[in-house]
Amino acid sequence: MSDAKPSTILVIDDDAEIRYSLTRVLSSRHYRLQEAASGEQGIAMVKKEPPDLVFLDVRMGGMSGIETLQHIRAANPRQLVVLMTAFGTAQTAIEAMKYGAFDYIMKPFDPQKVLTLAENALKAHADLRAVRDQKPSINTEDYKEGIVGSAPVMQEVFKIIGQVTASDVTVMTTGESGTGKELVARSIWKHSHRSGKPFIAVNCAAIPDNLIESELFGHEKGSFTGATGQRLGKFELCDGGTIFLDEIGDMALATQTKILRVLQAGEIQRVGGTETIKVDVRVIAATNKDLEEMVKAKTFREDLYYRLNVVRIRMPPLRERAEDIPQIVDFCVQNLLKQRKARVGKVSPEAMAVLTKYRWPGNVRELENVIYRSAVIAQGDAILVKDLPAEIRGAVGEDGSVIASTLPAEPAAPAGAEVAAEPAAPAVPAYQALGSALDYVLAQLREADEPVLKRLEREMITRVMQAEGGDVLKAAKRLGLTKAALTKKLAESA
Predict the structure, then answer these.
(1) According to the model, what pLDDT value does residue 214 have?
(2) Does 223 or 168 have the greater pLDDT score?
(3) CA distance to 95, 208, 218, per residue, from 273 (Å)
(4) Domains of the chain, CATH where assigned
(5) For site-directed labelling of 238, which of 162, 396, 417, 473 has its Cα 20 to 30 A away?
(6) Does residue 355 register a pLDDT over 70?
(7) Both ends of the chain: CA-CA distance in Å?
């Protein structure tokens, strides 16, 4: 028998019947229930002894629910609050989440949903409490490069970076989008003798073909329509420093020829100019394309390829170094906290487990964006599973397995290869599809402790009431019931 202290739930509502019906539902799970008939009374109770969870009505006489929520959160920033409302408007939802509500629930209550919501909120409360004393796994000062990782494949990357910093050798970084190729380039520049001179990154894929030469090499006044004055290009501006040509595989052949000239002779010419200008620039290039195949296809110059590919650094995709994910997550969270972009400083073990198992097709960039998004919407001082995007949670099964859609796609067949087409799956008749859906629903409902039809009826009534904004008369017409009959059913389920 467990000696664990029961969780305390405070219900704040000026309607005694609502308080009674809600406490009756919650008492079935042996929670310790408290009641407050006003916002003022509820605030006083929270200040005296913070409960584990608060159910708070939005519309009350005197102090409103939103105002009460603000006072409660000011008194106890970690307090979990669920708002109750009969009006599911956009304003209600926005205001509720803006001021830190855990969630909100519509009236009339579905008892099962109330219990599920309470369980989820109390689990979140326990998770937040469990990570409260969690210490950072890394020191951000140890990762000033911005490249985080201790996996063997990353240690090899660090070694090569260290080896090439002492020279001006041209470097090619390859890898999938989002793996951190620019970070590698910046690290090489930072540790080289050129660190006192500029570092300029150019995304070749983002500049139209008709403008990229002007962007890289500059132009003279009148060289083309709109050229109202002389302009220095990136190579001139970067003289003595390092230029990073990202996505060089997207560069037009004509521009490739001029890049080759820079590498061979250290010379450029502005668009529309005749003067040869000497530049001393180290070139680091990056691509996520197969340049060898592009050379074969004559879409990338072979001589330029060999000039660029003196030293190659391959950035591994995140799925090849999953052991680095906790470090990267911790690094991101600490940086967000330092920059005051979020108040979250920790990640729960359950959330970290999901993040570690996800395949990350967008690599580190995708992971960083997910952490930023989750940290912003998290209501406590830690990221929980519920704070992760649905597509991340849904891609990892309850058993920890990875859903097939998150796995890397199979490589395309080479040009000219014959692939035997698999026969298309026969179309499923509508009645069979409906039968399968019903089988699934029944399988889920069998887990409940109440009769299937009763639960289905209650669920249908709840959905229709929500759709009609709580209007009993309209809902009754939609359901084919009289107003009196629906009112009776609502009272029975309360």
Answers:
(1) 92
(2) 168
(3) 60, 21, 9
(4) 8-130 (3.40.50.2300), 152-314 (3.40.50.300), 319-406 (1.10.8.60), 448-493 (1.10.10)
(5) 162
(6) yes
(7) 31
Q: How far apart are CA 199 and CA 193, in angstroms?
A: 12
pLDDT computed for residue 471 by the predictor: 78
Give the position of tokens 């939103």: 66
Q: What is the pLDDT, as a whole number, of residue 199?
A: 97
pLDDT at residue number 484: 80
Q: Could you tell me which residues are beta bridge partners of residue 396?
A: 402
- pLDDT tens string 142-195: 667 788 888 999 999 999 999 999 999 999 999 999 999 999 999 999 999 999
Burial of 275 (0-12, 13-18, 19+ CB in 10 A): exposed
Instruction: Order across the sheet with 81-85: list the strands.
Output: 32-36, 8-12, 53-57, 81-85, 103-106
Rounded to whole angstroms, the Cα distance separating 234 from 252 reads 17
Q: Which of 136-140, 181-185, 406-410 has the lowest mean pLDDT?
A: 406-410
**Pairing, β 282-287 against β 277-278:** unpaired
* Token pair listed for 409: 């796609």
Which positions ≥6 away from 423 have C-beta within 8 Å? none
